[in-house]
Amino acid sequence: MSSERRFEQELPSLLDDMFMGPMPAYRDHVIQQTARTRQRPAWTFLERWLPMVDVARQPILAPRLPWRTIGLGVLLLALLVALLAALVVGSPPKLPAPFGVARTGLVAYASGGDIYTVDPVTGTGSAVVTGPATDLNPHWSRDGTRIAFERKVDGGGGASLLFAARRDGSDVVRLTSEPLQAIDDYTFSPDGKEILITAEVFGAPRVFIAEADGSGVRQLDLGVPVAYAAWRPPNGTEILFMDATDPTVGTIYAISPDGSNRRTILAATPGRNRGMVQWSPDGSRIAYGEWVDSDCCNTVHTHVMAADGTGDRILPMPTGAIWQSGSLGWSNDGTRLVVNRGYTPTGQDFQAAVVPADGSGPGVDIQYRSANCCTALEWAPDDTWILGTPEDTNGTALDQVLLDPVAGTTRTVPWKTVSDPSVQRLAP
């Protein structure tokens, strides 16, 4: 028998011997140690409570969405975006509060019988109300959305009608049904729904209230000639006015817009005259000018008092100044007044000045010249400058200028106008 045959016969036993192998010497010691250790309780095995094998074998499948559901979701998202865009575009613009500091917008002015608006920074302007009629003296509403203006009925002097339009000149509305003689002033109410008008009737100044939508106008019967009528800030609950009857010039009143609840704020004082009466922007104070008749000198001084007439005080002047007018305009933050100040006894030589309303100092003089000491001055809504319209010796308005209330300087403007100053208020 060959050697290959013997190997084949012995191979199974050789494999058995290799599989079993020798026993380790420490086997008996391990058995002795483990025999004394208690077996771990079955309840502590996690597999007893959770079918780990089954869980591990569960397939993780991503949900399958049908194309119809995906398309519907895309459509709903597009509709939502369109709705948000419509709300943003269609929502009304933010409006400024009727009083207090605001952002400065456009200047409205009249030139050549038309109404214009101009950017005071760039000098870029455009006509907003044009036509053959003579329109002048545009006044912005307190929210900056509308403009009221005067239209001469005969194309020149004399009687006028009042109109109002949107800031772009559209939607022109007639406010007064009958022409008014010598319109002195007109201002929108704080909510923009009414316009307070002072105009002459048979030679005496009277007060009217017109609906801003043109639906009607009524006369407010105050029983006396009226001057300096003004809505009380911030919500127009009262109208301030002064009795302009000679020789008792000077009683200052407040009355409800419906003509009720008249109250005397400051009674007339024999031998004294008053004028240039104005509310502060918060309605808590009143500024006015007071003087006595004199053959030689201008004796007017600037006064500030509380809304009930108490706490009256005279604002100081610098050394050398002789007289100081009443308020020509409160700053929008209520801390300063712009007035006219004279250093000679007559009222013909004067310049503008900005004075602290609390009487803490004489303020800053501004090189502003006009033949009329009481020409209109209006603060920019952000209080950075003052718009003025000086007058010549005939009382004709000259080109407007900008006054710096801090540096005390004046500069000309690139537009040409012959109207009262009016600056648009915008939301901050």
Low-confidence stretches: none
In terms of DSSP E residues, the strand content is 25-35%
Report the CATH architecture: 6 Propeller
Please state the overall shape, judged from the principal axes of the Cα atoms.
elongated
CATH class: Mainly Beta
> What proportion of the residues is helical, as a percent range?
10-25%
CATH homology group: TolB, C-terminal domain
Strand order of the largest sheet: 3-2-1-28
The total count of helices amounts to 5
Q: Can you count the beta strands?
A: 28
Gyration radius, rounded: 43 Å
Largest sheet: number of strands, sense, barrel closure: 4 strands, antiparallel
Q: What is the mean pLDDT?
A: 85
Question: Structural class, from helix and strand content?
Answer: alpha+beta
Features:
428 residues, alpha+beta, Neuraminidase, four-stranded antiparallel beta sheet, 5 helices, elongated
Short description:
This protein is of the alpha+beta class.
Characterize the structure shown:
The chain has 428 residues and is α+β, with helices and mostly antiparallel strands. The chain has one domain (108-426): 6 Propeller (Neuraminidase), CATH 2.120.10. The chain is built from 5 helices and 28 strands. It has helices at 3-20, 27-35, 46-49, 52-57, 67-90, and strands at 103-111, 114-118, 125-129, 134-140, 146-152, 160-166, 173-174, 181-188, 194-201, 204-211, 217-220, 226-231, 239-243, 252-255, 263-266, 272-279, 285-292, 301-306, 313-314, 323-324, 336-342, 350-356, 364-366, 377-379, 386-388, 401-403, 410-412, 423-426. The protein has a 4-stranded antiparallel β-sheet, with no helix packed on it. Strands 4-5-6-7 form a 4-stranded antiparallel β-sheet, with no helix packed on it. The protein is elongated. 35% of the residues are buried. The mean pLDDT is 85.
